[in-house]
Specification:
four-stranded parallel beta sheet; 18% strand; Rossmann fold; alpha/beta; 205 residues; two-stranded antiparallel ribbon
């Protein structure tokens, strides 16, 4: 079969949400991310993949759910394990203008004190969780006094949801290059403000 070249992308001057929209339109079925999970020592690994179109749609749905829960500029802690849901949640924050605070599941051994310190410092308006981790996150937040913090489940936000307007993302406008995108916790637990680097168009694989 003849090789079909991918349409060229120019990332210069584009925001991260703008580049993601462009990739979803031009390379819809191309692999965007693959996550390998090794549930035990004897595992040969299990892979899960999202195409650019799937990634954009899932992140867009999370962004709409975030906009319905908190205001742009407020903070959302990511209380999730590594995986595709984490990527979706982070990009949903960027698309919605909500400041992401990447963390860990609160029940992950060895991280309880750091999670508590960051939550106290950054004063989040909501927490992003997975369906599997929602109960543990709720129990942890209630025990730490943050029982009013709403949870947004990233894997419960399904593409094709009729409540999500197709043009909602465009109506918000893209973030400016120097807008605050996420807070990165230092070793002591205090969050440090960060803006995303200029996006680069990925190479076809």
């Amino acid at each position: 079969m003849p090789h079909r070249s991918m349409p060229a992308l120019d990332a210069a001057g584009q925001s991260l949400p703008g580049l993601l929209r462009d990739l979803a339109a031009r390379r819809a079925h191309q692999r965007a991310f693959t996550f390998m999970d090794f549930p035990d020592l004897g595992s040969t690994g299990r892979s899960r993949t999202l195409t650019w179109a799937q990634l954009h749609e899932r992140a867009r749905v999370v962004a709409v759910r975030l906009r319905a829960t908190v205001r742009p500029g407020e903070r959302a802690v990511l209380l999730m394990p590594q995986g595709l849901d984490y990527v979706v949640g982070f990009l949903g924050c960027v698309m919605s203008g909500v400041i992401a605070v990447p963390l860990f599941p609160p029940d992950q051994p060895g991280h309880e004190n750091r999670v508590a310190a960051v939550i106290e410092d950054c004063e989040p308006a909501c927490a992003l969780v997975t369906e599997a981790g929602a109960a543990a996150a709720r129990a942890y937040l209630e025990a730490s006094g943050a029982f009013r913090l709403p949870l947004v489940q990233v894997d419960a936000a399904r593409p094709g949801d009729p409540s999500v307007a197709a043009d909602a993302e465009l109506a918000w406008g893209d973030p400016a290059p120097d807008d605050l995108a996420y807070l990165e916790a230092s070793g002591a637990g205090s969050p440090q403000a960060s803006s995303p680097p200029a996006p680069r168009a990925p190479r076809p694989v």
